[in-house]
Specification:
The structure holds 2 protein chains of 2 kinds. Chain A is mostly helical. Helix content of chain A is 71%, strand content 3%. In chain A, helix 2 packs across helix 11, helix 7 crosses helix 8 and helix 8 crosses helix 10. The longest helix of chain A has 27 residues. Chain B has a 6-stranded mixed beta sheet with strand order 6-7-8-3-9-10, with helices on both faces. In chain B, strands 16-17-18-13-19-20 form a 6-stranded mixed beta sheet, with helices on both faces. In chain B, strands 2-1-4-5 form a 4-stranded antiparallel beta sheet, with helices on one face. Chain B has 3 domains: 236 residues, Rossmann fold (3-Layer(aba) Sandwich), CATH 3.40.50.300; 160 residues, 3-Layer(aba) Sandwich (Rossmann fold), CATH 3.40.50; 66 residues, no CATH class. By secondary structure, chain B is an alpha/beta fold. Classes of the chains: A mainly alpha, B alpha/beta. The interface between A and B is medium-sized, with 26 and 29 residues.
Chain lengths: 333, 509
């Protein structure tokens, strides 16, 4: 069985990561430790959560730039209620935040279906709208560690397989549990259920999907609501990790996640994308993010690198497309 | 033979236009039934009524003995109605297997899908037609012919009893077409009813048992294949005898405008040389893949040649891009007018003046609506574009009128050389005649035209010289005397396909 081009693309990403890590390790041997891996996973966990939702949206041929606002809205509102009512339950936090997130996602889907406008415009609008509603009507105050429900901090600090390293206990953040669950559920939805295949079909051709009996509006309803749910989860993970609640964080970081999805091989025109690719995309960005200091570069190099990878990966795939088009005598330049 | 489908006195109109008028038709098992008619004659509307896309205004549809006033798409599928649209409606990034199986699974309302089952369904269908193709390739990676097969298999997976195929052979090579036609005959043996729509009359005659002819929403009649020949068929389709006047060059100017000297692009075409004078209409004919479109692209600054020369007025020029081509007053009408020739959502005026927008602009900066209007009005009148106004959106015009807009757009640049890549593809016979007339007029005024076409009669009617290409080579240039001989048509068809049997081996065993 020959390796398909798409798989090859992910293999290349992986090889780049390995070589880069070797390079960093050579300069700074401290890099080679299980701690680094745990750290990388911890810092990237929030983005990993939302990139999975975004991936589904992009496969369906849409885009969502409001998920950070949704995550903030969901977590901020939930935690404010918890503080006011004195509730200290992790399940309540995740449950309510998911509910709010799912509801906001549903609004996105309804607007897209109703107005028949490009999802980018709609979600760009709802991004500001959701954030604006939150800061105007729900609250714009920050909450410090002292007032937050203690279950959040416990979750934020919780680790799996911890062991004693040189000077401290290290472990894998418990946030991987929800991420792994979500990744598995999403994989199942995408590959094993009819709605998942409908998402792919919709992204390939809306008209053809409709002709074989899929309902594009209903699929969009599912996809955006699902992304909203994941954003709700992500909001709580974020607050638990930073152990503080700010009304103006997250919003503005959407495009980095979109970039990660694209680097991971997700087609911005829809119809194609892999969960593993999107995860690799996020990890590669965070890897650069966290190691630039180790190889003696200031963090201002970060944007430069992320931008360069993005441009190169898009250039590679668009070049492949163009070669294919030229063979069919279609000239797009 | 048992009757699968019959329609009785079907009427359907759209905002005052009667698309179907009292249509009755009967199709039986194991029959290949061809629907013939110009664009807009009602064929597609009929298919859409039977497949449940439209509800007829009155009349009834009987499928397998069940009577319907109108159907839903789901009912139609349950009765075994399957339509393969011209665009095939496949999913580019999904595997062949999945494309074949998904509609069946979707229709069974499955919530969970299994890869093994998908493969099993797909393999089963391919076996039915005795073809094997790679199931794991995505549709985007597979050839057009295999896509066509995937679409057929998808229909079969749904237990099709009656299969509608809308112009299935348009983009296929000759060998692929004959394989497809064989598959269709095989399906017929299995008892499927097949309704075949094609503009290519030779295909119609090679497979059809019965032919129903439509014109302006009326059915003209049902015929057995042997009751008709091509001439009668086109007479019934248009309602008139269509005889195209033969082009004779009248231009007296014998200076060479365009000379192509040993032009080569490896893998596409080799050593092509020819000359064009004002008033020449040079036909360029060859099968898909013969290099004809590739050559035309090079003359227009796309797909650059590797060696050889292009001379204009005796001077060697380098045509690096369509912009330089335009500067040398070369125009090109592309094969696909919708994606490459028009701004479908803009007005006629904007389309026509788009090629000369810099010249009509005041001081080269501000657009000049009045000048644009005058030019457009004049073009519309000259080319007989049927439209309420120059402000009509191009997407709302018929195919023939759209093509006239593309021609008008380029004629506005006053080209000296006009390359026309299959200018009448998908255009009804009436508009064809008008387009030919215009082309002859341009040539009489001194334009040199390179006329690419698949249809030999069209080439014979319009060209005073014909270049035949095969496998990237120019194998013969026929001049006026050659073309006047009675066996010219036979000669050309032999020339283009001498080695058709050994034609490029396809990926399929």
């Amino acid at each position: 069985m020959k390796i398909k081009i798409r798989d090859r693309y992910r293999a290349i990403l992986l090889i780049i990561m390995v070589f880069y890590s070797l390079f960093v390790g050579l300069i700074n041997p401290a890099f080679f430790s299980i701690e680094t891996v745990f750290d990388l996973i911890r810092t990237s966990s929030t983005s990993l959560m939302v990139v999975i939702g975004l991936l589904l949206v992009m496969i369906s041929g849409g885009i969502d730039v409001s998920f950070m606002a949704v995550a903030l809205f969901g977590s901020y509102t939930t935690i404010k209620i918890m503080i006011a009512a004195g509730i200290d339950s992790l399940a309540f936090a995740f449950g309510l935040s998911m509910l709010i997130g799912g509801f906001l996602g549903l609004i996105n889907a309804l607007l897209i279906n109703w107005l028949k406008l490009p999802p980018f415009i709609i979600t760009l609008g709802t991004q500001s709208l959701f954030h604006g509603i939150m800061t105007t009507f729900i609250g714009d105050k920050s909450f410090g560690a002292g007032v937050l429900p203690s279950c959040l901090n416990k979750f934020g600090q919780a680790v799996l397989f911890s062991f004693q390293s040189d000077n401290s206990r290290v472990g894998l953040t418990a946030s991987v549990v929800p991420i792994l669950i979500v990744a598995a559920v999403t994989w199942f939805i995408l590959y094993k259920t009819m709605i998942g295949r409908g998402i792919v079909a919709l992204g390939n051709s809306e008209e053809a999907a409709r002709r074989i009996g899929f309902n594009p509006s209903r699929i969009r309803l599912f996809v955006y609501t699902y992304t909203g749910l994941l954003s709700g989860i992500m909001g709580i993970i974020y607050v638990a990790q930073v152990n503080a609640l700010y009304p103006n964080k997250l919003v503005g970081d959407e495009l980095m996640v979109v970039a990660a999805a694209v680097i991971g091989g997700t087609k911005i025109t829809g119809g194609q994308g892999k969960i593993s690719g999107a995860i690799l995309g996020v990890l590669i960005i965070y890897l650069l993010n966290s190691t630039l200091i180790l190889i003696g570069l200031s963090s201002s190099w970060n944007d430069l690198f992320v931008g360069a990878i993005l441009v190169v990966s898009i250039a590679v795939s668009s070049y492949q497309e163009r070669v294919k088009n030229r063979k069919n005598l279609i000239f797009t330049e | 033979m048992q009757e699968v489908l019959s329609v009785h006195n079907l009427y359907k109109s759209f905002i005052g236009v009667k698309a179907l008028n009292d249509i009755s038709l009967s199709i039986s098992q194991g029959e290949i039934h061809c629907l013939a008619g110009e664009n807009g004659s009602g064929k597609s509307t009929l298919i859409k009524c039977v497949s449940g896309v439209y509800a007829p205004d009155s009349g009834k549809i009987v499928l397998n003995g069940h009577e319907y006033q109108s159907l839903t798409p789901a009912q139609a599928i349950r009765e075994g109605v399957q339509v393969i649209y011209q665009d095939l409606s496949l999913f580019r990034h999904m595997s062949v297997a999945e494309n074949i199986a998904i509609e069946k699974l979707r229709f069974e309302n499955r919530r969970i899908v299994s890869r093994n089952e998908i493969r099993r369904i797909a393999a089963e269908q391919l076996e039915k037609i005795g073809v094997s193709i790679d199931l794991d390739q995505t549709i985007g990676e597979t050839s057009l012919a295999n896509r066509q097969i995937a679409a057929i298999c998808r229909a079969l997976a749904q237990d099709a009893k009656i299969l509608f195929m809308d112009e299935p052979t348009t983009a296929l090579t000759k060998k692929e077409v004959s394989r497809l036609l064989n598959i269709i005959l095989e399906l017929k043996k299995k008892g499927l009813a097949i309704v075949f729509i094609s503009h290519k009359l030779d295909e119609v005659f090679s497979v059809a048992d019965k032919i129903s002819i439509f014109r302006n929403g009326f059915k003209i009649g049902d015929f057995n294949k042997d009751e008709l020949d091509e001439k009668k068929l086109s007479h019934y389709m248009t309602g008139r005898e269509v005889e195209y006047p033969r082009y004779v060059r009248k231009c007296k100017d014998d200076r060479v405008v365009l000379e192509v000297d040993r032009l080569t692009r490896k893998g596409h075409y080799e050593n092509i040389s020819f000359k064009m004078r004002p008033g020449d209409i040079v036909g360029l004919i060859g099968l898909l893949g013969s290099g004809r479109t590739e050559l035309a692209m090079s003359l227009f600054g796309l797909n650059p040649a590797h060696s050889g020369q292009i001379k204009i007025d005796g001077k060697t020029v380098k045509i690096k891009s369509p912009m330089t081509a335009k500067k040398h007053r070369i125009a090109m009408l592309p094969e696909d007018r919708i994606t490459q020739g028009l701004f479908m959502e803009r007005m006629i005026r904007e389309n026509i003046t788009s090629s000369i927008i810099d010249k009509v602009a005041k001081n080269k900066i501000f657009t000049d609506k009045k000048a644009e209007n005058d030019i457009s009005e004049q073009t519309v009148e000259e080319l007989k574009i049927r439209t309420p106004s120059v402000e009509t959106v191009v997407g709302n015009l018929s195919g023939g009128n759209q093509q006239k807009v593309v021609i008008g757009k380029w004629v506005a640049t006053h080209p000296r050389v006009f390359i026309m890549d299959t200018p009448t593809v998908g255009i009804d016979i009436g508009s064809k005649a008008e387009i030919y007339e215009q082309i002859h007029k341009f040539a009489d005024q001194g334009m040199a035209i390179l006329f690419i076409s698949d249809e030999i009669p069209e080439i014979l009617a319009n060209c005073n010289r014909v270049m035949v290409m095969r496998d990237g080579r120019c194998i013969r240039i026929l001049n006026e005397e050659d073309l006047e001989k009675p066996d010219a048509e036979k000669l050309i068809s032999e020339l283009i396909s001498t080695r058709a049997e050994e034609e490029r081996e396809e990926a399929v065993p």
